[in-house]
Amino acid sequence: MANIQIRKYQDEDSEAVKELFTSGMNEHLPSSFMHVMKQPLTQMLLMCTFCSLMASSKSFLLPVLAVTLLLAGVRQMIAYMFNKHIEASLKNDLNNIGETYLNREDSCFWVAESDGQVVGTVACLPAEDAPEFLELKRMSVCRSHRGMGIAKALCRTVADFTLDRGYPAVILYTSMVATDAQKLYEHMGYKKIRQFLLPEFFAKIINFTLIEYRLNLEEEK
Ligand SMILES: CC(C)(COP(=O)(O)OP(=O)(O)OC[C@H]1O[C@@H](n2cnc3c(N)ncnc32)[C@H](O)[C@@H]1OP(=O)(O)O)[C@@H](O)C(=O)NCCC(=O)NCCS
């Protein structure tokens, strides 16, 4: 972790933070597409489309074209789902980090800086559905600085802050396709609490789940 400093967010970090968040989220598009392709419902739909068009048109071109269009449609739906989440986050907390995270006693936003460049982010605030815990949010590390222990240091920053504020645990939500993040959190002692489907219709169809993790700090003392 040479040359890496973790410090509180400042207003001039705004664009770099938004960029890191957006690129981090977009990284999950290919794995989400692969997840959808593995679903029996998707495979059945593609197979049925292919076979029925093949039987009715007696041509190979039409079913191949239809399946290609269907795949492009699925890709678009996934991109739409991610974009909706990214846009909502950019409009809400990430549009006013000072107000959301820095003006309150029990929340904070940090960045990891390397040679004057923001290369990582993390935040925490009282969890909306469980205000007795702090929720870790906005964990992201720039691709060029991965594998250096920056995310581990950001996790420790949140755990220390949470302990300092007298909360018993940190919770967080991550998606089933964020496998690097799952490994990170499990490595840091977080335990899986539950897995649940996102409420959106399309997410239900493609069986897209979120995982809730918890780090119990009473055990860590
Ligand atoms: C997940 C993420 C934050 C990890 O950042 P990082 O700085 O590379 O992580 P670290 O170097 O601190 O590694 C921490 C631990 O996580 C695990 N880990 C992280 N990336 C991993 C990978 N690609 N493969 C296997 N394990 C990995 C390892 O256990 C690692 O510890 P180790 O090196 O001692 O084995 C980064 O990959 C990222 O920003 N991803 C995109 C955004 C994202 O998914 N954010 C999480 C949203 S909830």
From TrEMBL:
InterPro entries: Acyl_CoA_acyltransferase, GNAT_dom, NAT_camello-type. The chain crosses the membrane at residues 44-74. Residues 62-218 form the N-acetyltransferase domain. Keywords: Membrane, Transferase, Transmembrane, Transmembrane helix. This is N-acetyltransferase domain-containing protein. It comes from Ataeniobius toweri. The lineage of its organism: Eukaryota, Metazoa, Chordata, Craniata, Vertebrata.
